[in-house]
Amino acid sequence: MADERFEPKIIAFLCNWCSYRAADLAGTARIKYEPNIRMLRVMCSGRVDPSFVLKAFALGADGVMIAGCHPGECHYLEQNYKTMRRFSMLKHTLKAMGMEDDRVRLQWASAAEGVLLAGAINEMIEQVRALGPLDWPKNWSENGKIDEAIEQLVEEHAEAMEVPV
Amino acid sequence: MAERVGVYICHCGSNIAGKVDVENVSQWAGEELDNVVVSRDYEFMCSSLGQELIEEDIKNEGLTRVVVGACSPHLHEKTFRKACSNAGLNPYLCQMASLREQVSWVTEDETLATAKSKAMISGAVKRVLLHEELEPTEVPVNPHSLVVGGGIAGIQTALELANSGNPVFLVEREPSIGGHMAQFDKTFPTLDCSACILTPNMSDVSSHPNITLLAYSEVEDVSGFIGNFHVRIRKKARYVIEEDCTGCGICIEKCPKKVLDNVFEAGIGYRKSIYRPFPQAVPKYPVIDTESCIYFDRGTCKACEKFCPTNAIDFEQKDTYIDIDVGNIILATGYDTFDSRKIPQYGYGRLANVFTSLEFERLCNASGPTDGKILLRDGVTTPKSVAIIHCVGSRDTRFNAHCSAVCCMSALKFGHLVIEKTGAEVHSFYTDMRPTFKDYEEFYHRLLEEGMHFTRGRVAEVTDAARQPGEEGKLIIQVEDTLIGRQRRIPVDMVILMTALEPKPDAREVGLKFGISCSMAGWFTERHPKLDPVATMTDGIFIAGACQGPKDIPASVSQGAAAAARVLGMIMKGAVEIEPVVATIHEERCSGCRICNTLCPFNAIDYVEDKMVSVINQALCKGCGTCVAACPAQAISGAHYSNDQIFAEIEGLLFDVVQGNGSKPVVEEPEAVPA
Amino acid sequence: MSEKGVLALYWAASCGGCEIAVLGINEKILDVAAAFDIVFWPCVLDGKVRDIEKMDDKSIDLCFFNGAIRTSEQEYMARLMRQKSKVLVAFGSCAQEGCIPGLANATTKEAIFQTSYHDTPSTVNPDGIRPQTETEVAEGTLYLPFFYETVKTLGQTVDVDYYLPGCPPEPERIWDAIVAILENKLPAPGSVIGAETTVCDECPRTRDEKKIKEFKRTWEIIPDSDICLLEQGLVCCGIATRAGCGALCPTVGSPCIGCYGPNEGVDDFGARMMTALASVIDSDDPEEIDRIIHEGIPDPIGTFYRFSLAHSELRRIALPANGGSDAKLETAESA
Questions:
Q1: Tell me: the pLDDT tens digits for C229-281?
Q2: What is the pLDDT of residues B485-499, one digit of tens each?
Q3: Residue C131: C-alpha distances to residues A152, B144, B456, C117 (Å)
Q4: Chain C stretch 63-122, residues whose beta carbon is closer than 8 A to a beta carbon of chain B
Q5: Which CATH architecture has domain A10-161?
Q6: Same domain as C294, residue C204
Q7: What is the SS3 assignment for B510?
Q8: Contact C83 B673 (CB under 8 A)
């Protein structure tokens, strides 16, 4: 971290059967990728609730990846199609919220695709790095003027009350 | 009481410690993370000494939660859960962080690897604090089993189970069991007569006291769960009363209608409208093909009925339904062959003497339409030269990316049969020769010695347009011989296309019926490609033979036996444990909106009309969590993957960026307002 | 001091509907008056903030606080009422989840000021003057409250004991809450006083399994009067919205818009709507899915966060300056 390069923090949700195994395989095969990604295991990408993604952003993540089995190859038959639909819906809403497209990514990766997953991770990290920090919570943290304004309000009240009743 | 967490960082020799500063991570976890009371690093956590370390700490330090930072949970989650359980801690109160596969093996920079490890341990600790004790439930296993598909794999499975003393239902869609193997002439590389080795097993099936054979039947509906499936089977009308039929075959003899047999004879032979697919068919009862039967067409004829000595013909017969309860189901539904018409340049269907491999099997077969004589389509001429084209529809991304596994050896077998029976020249056009198993390579050498010609190259075209002398009246193979780098034209009399093995066209539909998944191509997906090739994601449903992927007879038989062994294990135990990682609908929060009703492919969600709520059958639930994520009222909770657990893990993973901006007020509580 | 309890009601960023809803309990307001001394209710009674400031801490037994927090004055009042009250109830959707005032978070303060003080046809402001927080006049300094960039809920501002949902809360539910308070039968602090299930539970329409091929706007169809509106393609938020209203809208053929907020235990209302609707879209083709969503839901924030934007995980749209605090300071100073 000696250089001043922006190091994004990306949260990834990986399904137990395909993409988490792809991550295992990337490890076994010693395929290097950047350490900016932090992974969580879910049983199926269908478990990924949009609120997980929103929560990650609200907590300060710079990007979120959802990874699952390829369409038609879901270990739970067809649940990743629901992921696909939800992802489309979520992305539509995030766009309206002013979030850049590249900050969320849906990545299909089979258990055999360690290289593909590692490549996708590196690509996403690069894209998010190019976008710069998201720091979503800053959007709602007002600057230090609030307390000052309230102080003024209190003074104003005090002054107004100088007038004898 | 505050939870007491133990954190264990594995060195994994130098696998983790070589990249991650494990001492630093472990010390940091002990000092910085809430609720961590013990934090250690150790050479090999998975060793018995490493496990004892955890067990001792649980006992002596009163740990209530355990976090192990080591390899992927797919490798050792069970190990560490067991260690917890040995020390009296519920195994689900343990969480792993994959520091090896997700950090040390994939990260270049040591400082960053150590930082990422901290984040992952922080996530695991936050998560494990919210874990709940879970107990697997036990359900009894019905000793009856259902085998679907009566090819060689299904026959093997049924016999293995039946021979061990357990009742089996064997369902076959066609009028007879036997599958593709019954169509073959010889088997490679031993050149055994296929029928000779298959038919004894077929008759064993028909006479076995433990096997109920339901041929000409299909599974209509499956419900229930491992150990306790309910299956509805439709027995299609044969129009022959099985109890009365002696199988004498007079009806077949007297039937005046002859039709092309596109199934068993692969379209090169004929059968009657009332027929048995082949003489040794099991069961022996014939079946009326209503599409071609004169009576069903015009209302007259009834020749079969007139001549039947036991009055076994019943034109009024209807499909019947049979409901059975079984503990386990084995699917051995086999494969189909590629339609060679999809490659028009090979001329199949247009050039008479282009045959498919299945047609050629029938042509060679002594009980086939030519009595085993290898003849051209005219039925009289013996070919003087034969071309065998490999990989027709296989290893070709336009059709099937996969290798069909059996064609190289079949082609060698065909070559041998042609040389033996006709003395003709045989040319093989192959992509790569793959004689991979026992005695296969030797068979290849035998054919080399027998004078079969091998040309490495994918055939561009089969044509009857002669360009050179000697090509008139021949089929010319246009091919690049890739070993010598030259285009060649080879005139032959007969062409055999080694057609690809493909999934059954309705495999996906069948998979859905039984709650199992298919690969993109349509092969049934095994639970683990290496370590669990006959089980599926759905407990109690197994797969065997070519429905899982192309394979030859010995491989299919092995899988059939393996699946039977898996089922027997459960039958012997009498009960199975069901994973507690399932979803639950909280009735008081469910408003019965029915959003979740269509989401479960395992039919685990039912709507209870009178209560107006949906409920989950936990024995059917596979724990994917899709309904949990979908519920608009958040009335469904997913064990071991609850929202709170995942939120906590996210927060932990982002420990270095979270700045108290979660749900806390942005502004501090007010100081005393001046009065 | 009388033996009666002490009650205060306050309004912050709100429309006044909650005040009317309180009066909607009709003659029972007399019972309220019998049980409580009402010390502060700016909408109805004359009163001075100064008087409240002088009261002892926690000397108000119960405070119904409606409205969101969008200015420093409202924040001050929220802190004050918190300090003086034993039980602070976030009354109505604005206080609970930001409600319609919270939709300001779908734009920026600058855009709001631009519209209000410059762009609307009825505005006459040739000098382009905007209100200032401090103005020097001969008599001294005049102060105006500071206008926030982001609307907050009461819960994001101070600790809240109970939430009473609804825009506005139904009078019956208000009375239920008052009775619960009087009889001391309140749930655990921090919880919502209301049902634990959703509007579907109260909706008389028949419901079946759901598969949606197309989302429709209310003007596009005349809905069947008996069948679930969602099954007819209308985006009805009843599936995710807390029960309590008696399913008023869907009963008369108008889809629920979610005014009663999310169900018990839900943090983000929009996430629930998004996931539920998307899950039952009847297509596996990515392009068709995108088309169904983009055409059917042109305004996702307005559809999914109409009442809860300020309370959602993301709280607001991204600020143009991508979180740069200096830029925001500038905007703040221009106010």
A1: 999 999 999 999 999 999 999 999 999 999 999 999 998 999 999 999 999 99
A2: 999 999 999 999 999
A3: 16, 83, 86, 9
A4: 75-76, 79-80, 82-83
A5: 3-Layer(aba) Sandwich (3.40)
A6: yes
A7: helix
A8: yes
